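Replying to the earlier thread about multi-chain prediction with a worked example.

Input:
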Amino acid sequence: MRARPAEYELAAPGTLSAVLSLLAQEPGEWLPIAGGTDVMVQYSAGRLPSRKLVSIWNLPELRRIETIGGKICIGAGCTYADLCDHDIVRREFSLLASAARWTGGVANQNRGTIGGNIVNASPAGDSLPALMVYDADLILVSAKGRRSASYSDFHTGYRKTRLAPDELVESISLDRRFSGYYAHARKVGARHAQAISKVCFAALGQLADGVVDDVRLAMGSVAPVPLRLSETERLVKGHRIEPELMRLASRTAAAEIRPIDDIRSTARYRAAVAGNLVAEFLERLSVRGRTI
Amino acid sequence: MIEPPQSHTKCEISFQVNGKLVAVRAYPMERLLDVLREELGLTGTKEGCGEGECGSCSVLMDGVLVNSCLVPALQAKGVNITTVEGLAEDERLHALQQAFLDCGGAQCGICTPGMILAALHLLGKKPQPTMEDIREGLSGNLCRCTGYAQIIEAVAEVGRRGIAG
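Result:
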């Protein structure tokens, strides 16, 4: 380990309001730490941007899942295991449940949190494409109060978000209107477990009279931010899924992503995979997508 | 000018380890792994990668499997930790330890404590796991010797006999 523990402070005030007042006193000075699956890795490597940390692990205010009307509200401190264990998440938000099951091994699923995945803002975060296609809203909280922010443009650049220095993500609000959609998730990595994604993909679709009535596609690890494939969606919507459309959709997807070469893969490979994943989804949607 | 890093003081952190209440003086950002090994002398918990990828530092925290290299000591305040040292009763090995021996599930031994704790956590949730459950339950624990087959067999054996306790 490269870090010297004596040089770091860690506060654990134990309640959300106490954490928020600490953040308000010195905005940007305190780095929140939940389950530590990202923060502790950076810490051990001596790469942590702050020497003052505040624990938000297991704060009861952040660790609950509630259904309110047609929405489900997931506390940002819920772990991947919490998501996998929740009936409604499993039944109606299968893309999120799959992503939770693919993230790390069991020990990391028991500690890694959905809020952590969002604010860590890695383009490879497995749950992020699912949140994009489910049209998530984030509830952000500070000592001054709450505000709601659309998740669709929350990531503004590589590891950058719209979160203010005195704010925390309190919860994620998801509309239950997609429960009838055909849902398809894929993670492409070096091995099945414990691998960081080369490409991850979440897709929802619905057919009406054999025509694509609605489609929502998002990918991770193919751009500086998790990316909604808007051009591919526009191309496909309102059409019958036929081989020519699938080929065109593949090409559009491969062209609208902005992949790079890095330690896990190459831009060329990622573009090829992105195209194939879109084609695979459309093929399955054409067979299994519910017709209304 | 860069300020020299400030040195903070240790704090007292108490928690239970293997059923026994302990109090240690540690820096709050010390890793639980180091507290267990260096302060408490419980060297059964191993360090492999130190970044949550290999599972050799797995312990149970309030019955839940975690990588102790990723837990700051302060977050262990008031919890109940189980390490591999807490499994045997006197001279009698835990059923999982015995099964690992019987099936050849341990070679160099570095991954073994973590494997056993991951298996214990799995059997707590699924007392009769399928092969697929076992593979998934142990997927965060890497072994570079056995090829996994004997490890999986050891866990399956305990599941079949319903003796995880």
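Chain B touches chain A at residues 5-8, 26-31, 34, 50-53, 55, 58, 64-67, 69-72, 74-75, 77, 118, 121-122, 136-142 (CB under 8 Å).

Feel free to reuse this layout for your own posts.
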